[in-house]
Amino acid sequence: MAVQQNKLPELDIDPFSTEFLTDPYPFHAQMRDAGPVVWLPKYEIYAMARFDEVDASLRDWETYSSAAGGGLTNFNKEEPWRKPSIILEADPPLHTRTRGVLNKILNRAAIEKLRAGFETIADEVVEQIVQKGTFDGIKELAEVFPLRVFPDAVGLRKDGRENLLPYGNMAFNAFGPRNALFEESFKKANEVMGWILAQCSRDALSPEGFGAQIYAAADDGDISEEEAGLLVRSLLTAGLDTTVYGIANALFSFASFPDQWQVLRNDPKLIRGAFDEVIRLQSPVQTFFRTTTRDVDVDGITIPKNNKVILFLASGNRDPRKWENPDEFDIQRRAVGHVGFGAGIHICVGQMIARLESEVILNALLKRVRHIEFNGSPERKLNNTLRGFNSLPLKIFE
Ligand code: OVP
């Protein structure tokens, strides 16, 4: 007897429209309620928005491949906008080898050595805003702190660093369709990509830092010289905008739920869990795609081979089937298990440094600030993949 076939729900939703990106949550609920997998005809893609299916697909790399790209573009059918990443956009065995190299460089013990230096800079950045009392959480904090610590940790030269955030903005827009957001962010693409590419070569990198350590792995024969350059590019693509958005979304969360700042002040050991709760509720990376390697049955629906599946990480992170009061910011909840960093073999390799940055900046704020509130309306920044802000007017009290 054939397995039971269920009807595939079809929804007229554009996850890359202004309306969706401005307020995705009602659309997430609509997709979750329609079924475990839905069809989005606008892009001819399958979509998963419930926690269980998002989590299971992320963990099943053999069925849900990354090698055809982490975005809408199917590399089996269309040209990628750049050479594919050899870690994000790769499956085993290539991924196993490249991931091994970055695991060794970005492991917890290695990252811990950066803490003292990060703390000094966090105290400086926080001192500046405490002096002012009112400030823009994006331009004066969320963009400032990662830009002061991360490029030095990689070993980049000082000039040209203004290209880093535009490059990330391009790369994360490029996971979506060639819409107006994509076009706008690619206006200075030649300049930006030229600078980024140049910084990926061995001789552009300082002898200390993650970049030099990646090239040391090439000297050890673990990767080729060209692969080393591509892994440096991955750090420059994935390492900055993500942490800027993470810190921004932490500030937004505490300004939105000021009682939670009091909870954290009373028990700073909650910082790590608080950051997970930020990533759960205000996931900087909202979506990633996979591509099916075979006909796969999902709850009585067949997704045929070589089809794109969009995984709504941010929707899984607010699925009421998984989370109690999913839309509440509660830093004491057990947020571990959220899919904001992904899950399975591709789970965020940089999360130790993301966690260090967030911990250090929140700690510096906790020491000086007893209350955070909005000082005007936040202005959203739309991106095909990332959720965050252009501006976040804040007021803090010593
Ligand atoms: C969030 C990520 C994002 C964008 C690019 C890359 C990785 C890369 O490897 O280039 S992970």
Summarize the structure.
With 398 residues, the protein is α+β, with helices and mostly antiparallel strands. The protein has helices spanning 18-22, 25-34, 51-59, 94-105, 108-112, 115-132, 138-142, 144-154, 164-173, 180-185, 189-199, 210-219, 225-238, 241-256, 258-266, 271-281, 313-316, 351-368, and strands at 38-40, 45-48, 64-65, 134-136, 287-292, 296-298, 301-303, 308-312, 371-374, 379-382, 387-391, 393-397.
Spans where pLDDT lies below 50 across 5 or more residues = none
The run of helices and strands is HHEEHEHHHEHHHHHHHHHHEEEEHHEEEE
Assigned CATH superfamily:
Cytochrome P450
The major β-sheet equals: 5 strands, mixed
Q: Helix count? A: 18
Quote the beta fraction.
Answer: 5-15%
CATH architecture level-2 label = Orthogonal Bundle
- What is the alpha-carbon Rg in Å? 21 Å
Number of strands: 12
- Bound ligands, named by name, code or SMILES: 3-(methylsulfanyl)benzoic acid
Number of domains: 1
Question: How confident is the prediction overall: mean pLDDT?
Answer: 97
Strand order of the largest sheet: 1-2-8-5-3
Q: The CATH topology, please? A: Cytochrome p450
Question: How does the helix and strand content classify structurally?
Answer: alpha+beta
